[in-house]
Amino acid sequence: MKKNALFGVLALVAGSLIAADSSPKDEVKAAAGKLAAKNNYSWKTTVEAAGGGGGGGRFRPGPTEGKTEKDGFTFLSMTRGDNTMEAVLKGGKGALKTPDGWKSLVEATEGGGDGQPNPARFIGRMLQNFKTPAAQAEDLAAKAKDLKKSDDAYTGELTEEGVKELLTFGPRPGGGNAPTPSNAKGSVKFWLKEGVLAKYEFKVQGTISFNGNDVDIDRTTTVEIKDVGSTKVDVPEEAKKKLT
Description:
- The structure is a single chain.
- By secondary structure, this protein is an alpha+beta fold.
- The protein has helices spanning 2-21, 24-37, 105-108, 119-127, 133-143, 160-167, 237-241, and strands at residues 40-49, 61-69, 74-80, 83-90, 93-98, 101-104, 148-150, 153-157, 182-193, 196-210, 213-226.
- It has a single domain, classed as outer membrane lipoprotein receptor (LolB), chain A (Clam), CATH 2.50.20.
- It is built from seven helices and eleven strands.
- It has an eleven-stranded antiparallel β-sheet with strand order 6-5-4-3-2-1-11-10-9-8-7.
- Helix 2 (24-37) runs antiparallel to helix 5.
- The radius of gyration is 21 Å and the shape is globular.
- The relative contact order is 0.19.
């Protein structure tokens, strides 16, 4: 009996020490990991671009509704300007619904260089670097210089290199060179609910040169998690065929 009591005390002490050693960054990463471990969840992403940078007209960023299931499919409905596009992702492969029907991401990003705007090609390239919210939040926490807990949220500044990657939506597939942003800075904020990631927001600013013209980017992205454990992901058969 005394041994059992002693072991119980030692376990409590060890747990307290581990909790004391955990940093705000560790807590956010753990919360993202708990979300990733859920069977399914949905989310809504909204983007605000100040000063006209970061998209306009037909490519103006609108809301994205997403659904994902553990080790299964991820379904996205994305609004860009007056267009709504759907995509399905699984296991490093993806399919995008275009005016010509469902295409694999490889098919959707083929061609280019003709100078004509092509929403499918643009979105397809972005999706090749897509991360679900749980994975993106963990990546953002890693990109933070430091995180501090205040009130009900965790906040921090992002590293310059981290902001540059976010401004260009990650490295280009195939090793192509993306424009290098200047004056890059940004911040991130996370909210948890019962130890699980519930919402996060990141703001990035910088200047990018497009065809010799400097464009100032000031973009705030907010991701709200919902329907954890009760989300159902329905995928069209035509999309599934493009993932094989």
